[in-house]
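#struct-queue
[09:14] JT: dropping the first one here, sequence first, then the structure tokens:
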Amino acid sequence: MERLSVQEMISRIEREEPFDAVALDYSFTLKIDRYVHYVCGAVHDGGQFRKELWDNCLHSAYDRWYEEDPCTKAMIHTHPIVIAGCDSRFEYDLNRGPDDAVFETAWGKQLWKQPLPRDQHDRSMAKHNSFYEIVHVLISKLESLFGMVVVYDIHSYNWKRWDREVPVINIGTVNLDNDRFGRSIEQWRNSLEGLNLPGVQYCDSKINDTFFGNGYFLKYITSSFQNTLVLATEFKKIYCDELRQVIYPEVVRAINHQLVHKLPHHAQAFYADHKVV
């Protein structure tokens, strides 16, 4: 893996060169093994938290881990194009827009002992801006090459806070063109249903049951590009014990191994249905 500036990444994308890199500030990674019509994203995978913020933060490392999406990059890392956040969403949230990406409160609790100084806020937002600069260039390039693009926006969610049965997988679609992409959305839901996961009796997959696809990553791409579908896909945290902070690597591995086949198969079906002739 190389360490590249945003401009170096942009130049490589413009020249259609493969690369595997981390940003100079270690805020995100981007791997392009080859240029294809689909992208995998894990914007909440990261847990880094800038040291200058430690003493001012009221939330523990566990509090942050609980709300992050650990291992979501590991679920998709084998695919040709993977972009992932490295920093905790408690520093800045890549799935929120510029106006609210740096939290004042987090999940109903005050985040900072003292209001965050402007220079610290701006350092966080510079990382957010750089990530979306790359996203824009990447999707622009892929649309120019292939006409149609699909992005698999992978997340996880805490299920023990719910007081009802919730699905193992939820796909949020309220901000999508469901008339245009409904068939592809249902194909993705159906493909994920019945995944064979250790310790999981049945893997059900539903649409808009727990989350609705209101994240900024989806909204930014959907509003900026007419021919890209973003599938916001939430895995129930059956791959860890969310209360004891224990990861179950066999479950993460099982998800990865099955997505190796299911994800490109779906991407190819999407392209066959929607490619520009």
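[09:21] JT: and here's the second one, same format:
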Amino acid sequence: MSTPDVDHPLQPGERVPNIVLDAISRDGKISLDDFRGHSPLLIGLFRGLHCPFCRRYVAAMAQLNPALREKGVQSLAVVNTPVERARLYFRYHPIRDLLAASDPVRASHRAFGLPIVEFTEHETDWPHKLGMDVVTTLRVDRPGELPEPMNPYDAGELLIKKDGYEIMEADQQVSLAGRMQLVGHFLLDREGVVRWSFTEVEDAGGNVCRALNPDELMSAASEIGH
């Protein structure tokens, strides 16, 4: 089933469409309507698992999942990686009790209004184009993993070397040469209405490859849980 594309990241107060995806962490399908009327949902829409930052976003969701469940909030991580490749990855990097789904065609990202940004040499028209001259001024801070705050490109290269992730054909199929899918988290209430979000679109690019603030998420979850 097709879903309408929107030209901006969904904002608090906007209702999300139903999306049906292949489940990674179990057999079958996962749809947003599975949660509607039953429980609030934190949905993380990420790039493929070839992205070192997104591997960490998924792991962070898994760590937050128990605390969210105590507040009555379910979690769903969506990656662009094809389902069989994703299942292979999670076989060796388990995400206990965290639902995950595959969306290699990025239908969910379009439905939630997350655009693809094109990297250019000097032209910036956020969030559709981003000059590499601007990228070099951005900073990502991951204490314990990066020696210091670094620009997203250099930080990604260092994390790729550190992880030793093997790029397979399935990863290449969903990688975007010279472009990057922007990602984000959306907290939905029981009726599928956005109540809180954190996306790379915000802050004119300053959020690119940055992790969300767990305290802000938990505060929002406390207001809609149970």
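[09:30] RK: nice, looked through the second one.
[09:31] RK: The domain at 20-114+181-224 is CATH 3.40.30.10 (Glutaredoxin).
[09:31] JT: good to know. The chain has a mean pLDDT of 93.
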